[in-house]
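Kindly inspect this chain:
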Amino acid sequence: MEAQVTAASASKRPWSPNPDADDVVKGIHAMLHPRNIVLVGATDKPGNYAERIWNNLVKYGYAGGLYPINARRETIWGVPCYKDFAGLPEQPDHVLVLVPARFAVQVIRDAAAAGARSATIVTSGFSELQDEESQRLAVELQQAVRETGLAVTGPNCLGNLSAGEKLFTNIDDRVVTMEQGSVAVAGQSGAIVMAIRQALEDRGVGVGYMVTTGNEAGLETPDLMRYFAADPSIRVIVVYLEGVRNTKAFRDACKAARAASKPVIALKLGASEGGRAAAMAHTGALAGSIETFDAIATREGVIRARGLDELIETTECFVHAAVPKGNRLAAVTLSGGKRGLLIDAFYSAGLNFAPLGKHASTELARMLGPGSIVGNPLDAGFAAVVDPSVYMKSIKLMVDDPDIDVVIVDAELPKAPHELRERNLRIVDEMASRATKPVIYISAMSIGFTEFTKTLRKSLPHLAVMQGMDRAVTAIKSLLDYAKLRKEVPDIVASSKPSARAVLERTLKAASGAALDEVASKKLLKAYGIPISREGVAQTAAEAAKIARSIGFPVVAKVVSAEILHKSDIGGVVLDLNSAAEVKKAFGDITARVRKLKHKPKLDGILIAQQVKADLELVVGTSLDAEMGPVVLFGTGGIDIELMKDVALAGAPLDAAEARALIGRTKAGVKMRGYRGKPALHEASAVKALVGLSNLMADAGDRIASIDINPFLINARTGVAVDALIVLNNAAARRAAGH
């Protein structure tokens, strides 16, 4: 098992980016490993941010130059104070901007002109405020950062930590252990990032870097993620995200971390209405922003924590537990009740305990004695009363068992010295150091760590120590899921034909409303290879009967209007029409219902379509998320779609393999592959539809808000789209057309 990087080993040989690294990575390195630090706006007013940051830099022993600037002071904090950058004894490197917002932009320009490479703008009063002056300053600051090329965090942030450099440009006055740990933390909220660092430190997890990004006028969280992915001292990247501004940059950063085998553990705000802007279609309503984030980010190797406690447990797990080779779990406990809790908790998460190998089972049976139950999880409590060595021998048998991938021990760390428990922990830590599998201690409940507990925990670098059964199970499941991911995910590009793209451009150019009607929607879908039912549009009852006869009975009649989004809600769909007379009557009934509607929608005709016999109704769709871009949806369709919510999401574009994987994540997918002896359904048609939709959204850019195919009917021989709704992003379409 790999232990954390020690401060001694890391500080002797500080990492440097490859000479070919891009300017962003080099700039971040300059910020976290500066030759000197300049505090612009230095003041010794008690409690001021400048004084608190200065005190931290001195207290923790930053070895580079420290230079305060204040034009009205000769000395401050017992050292010389400089009037400007020109008076400094050496060229500035990293600049802390602590002046009021109205002066900050000029400080950035002056710092760059003086040769500085990076800056942190602690000052607030920019885009976080809504007044005109603050918004203007925010624009000017972004322009200055862009033009100077400085690596800048902030404004409105609380500073950073680079433990290997003893650098703490932060206002936090809690004690910090300057240890080059294997975790890097970054995010927009200074308070939350600081709380994460403190909680990890309390658990004995060293934080090598902590960066608060604030309003992100310059560097954004994905930039830091890419830097951490390249730094060999970092094993786990923790981020707090209020939003994803640049989807490509975020996905590229995730790919870099994944290629380096570094999990990204994210706390993400976002069950927001912004992700449901396309709610005119079922897909838009079902694919909220946080679900879309999960669909796309998980594919890239991101583990989203549902809260701070879960984030801490998951980080603890990934720091101290190697990625396992499989999902075969084993556990040892000293309590029958705890054994039951373990079984329930892991079973509820979809995880099970594996049969023990033959050697382990035989030895355990011999140790426990006649009549004893050798199970997994193993309750060694009764036998350990008779022979205390049984407990440790049981753990060793599981650690050595080649049929087990993860060993779990139900126990908590002692709060005070306890010779037997301390000795046992050190023995198991030694076992884990030689093992090829993770060994994880789980406390059924959270316990407070005393100073003794913290010290003891830090002396056990090869053991993950988890608190709270449910959070521990969630973290272990994340570890197992991460182990199954491919190290690298190839970039998938749209594979549509030129003829399809031509139809797309003509269709969007001709569109005028908020959505395409069913006929126009299906014509576009067909161009992208999505199977469509045989059909025709009628303007009269006689024409409807003629179309029905050419298709063959039974048929279905449906209203055609771009202004009626959900046809069945207004009685605009009539099924099971088996004769010309029934078709004519349906034509008249639907027309009459439309004319009675209060908003008087435009009626473009009645669609007469082949009625396909279906063994299963599916929904296939896409939606353009405000943060994460296009997402593809698949699941159980029909009129109960919102009630069932049997859907899964994946980022677009996707290929056939990813489409099949998406299908397999739903109950509909289980049914399609032959459920309880029933014949398998035509999965290839659903795969074709998903890939076609994916290509269509990729080609459309941001001009289509969502596409809803519900239902997509499937049987053993074929699958076809019998209804479709394409909702347009009209503002984007108008921009593309030059209007």
Q: What stands out?
A: The domain at 616-737 is CATH 3.30.470.20 (D-amino Acid Aminotransferase; Chain A, domain 1). Residues 1-11, 274-288 have pLDDT under 50 and may be disordered. The chain has four domains: 7-269, 322-484, 534-611, 616-737. The first strand starts at residue 36 and ends at 40.
